[in-house]
Design goal:
DNA-binding, 132 residues, homodimer, mainly alpha, Arc Repressor Mutant, subunit A
DNA sequence: GGTTCTGTTATACAAATATTATAACAGGCT
DNA sequence: AGCCTGTTATAATATTTGTATAACAGAACC
């Protein structure tokens, strides 16, 4: 587990942890079926409170990234609710694209950046390397 | 001014206001040079405290969307810092694309959504309607 | 069976943040 | 002079965030 927490960030610790785990899944550092450390153990190695880790795990569960196996702890298990995911994506994109548009970032530049970032993530399309 | 605040949202009021004004600029409902209502007036029409509006305006100023003219109040004035804007865009995209990737949303779908949303925004490219 | 680890829940507390409330000041407008 | 502007200060309250301790039940291990 390589988790980096910036205690000077204005982003809440549980959110940083939450986001980094999602990043980890997207980049295949964590894979479906992998177990995450126990809340106490991870809290200990990071140096934060158990409840902060628990909060991140709880949210990840609600969002369908984790499931709890009594014997194996928190296990990566993606539950795909496409409609929900698409709705959230759109809502988030609306704001950040508005910002980009105001700052004269062209549509083409956004597309480029998407490709650049998505290249590091493993969507199902990534099994087939050819794209466009 | 058509501003909608959801008081049951988990998003802070000043943030909702902030985002909606940026949305308004991107969709040309507000244009460079337009004045926004005074902090007191807008606070009154929305039914919130003056300081909450002031906070939104202050942040928009820091981010380069507004300037204050002593005689005209808060005026839309975009200050483009491309490097900063691109950096922020990338940082934000990394997280939401990771989520999308985990939820099996393909790169092509993201591109489509970008086009769909960006079509409503007025980048400089929009003057020329032809794209791709 | 006893010990240890797990997730979960409850409670309490401190710190930071968000929101409201009043008030004041200086500059521009009419 | 009176009104509206942005700005600042200060205080009070509510909510959120993070920490601290404790307990419980289920699974694992010896």
């Amino acid at each position: 587990m390589y988790i980096e927490i910036d205690f000077n960030s204005d982003e809440a610790i549980y959110m940083q942890l939450h986001n980094q785990i999602i990043l980890g899944i997207a980049t295949s550092r964590f894979r479906e079926g992998d177990s995450l450390p126990s809340v106490r153990q991870l809290a200990d190695t990071i140096g934060i409170n158990m409840h902060t880790v628990n909060k991140a795990y709880t949210i990840l569960k609600q969002e369908g990234y984790l499931k709890v196996d009594r014997r194996r702890g928190a296990v990566i298990a993606i539950d795909v609710d496409r409609i929900r995911a698409l709705t959230e994506l759109k809502r988030e994109l609306q704001v950040i694209l508005a910002k980009s548009s105001c700052k004269n970032i062209s549509r083409a530049e956004v597309h480029e950046m998407i490709d650049e970032i998505y290249g590091n993530y493993g969507g199902q399309e990534n099994a087939v390397t050819i794209y466009r």
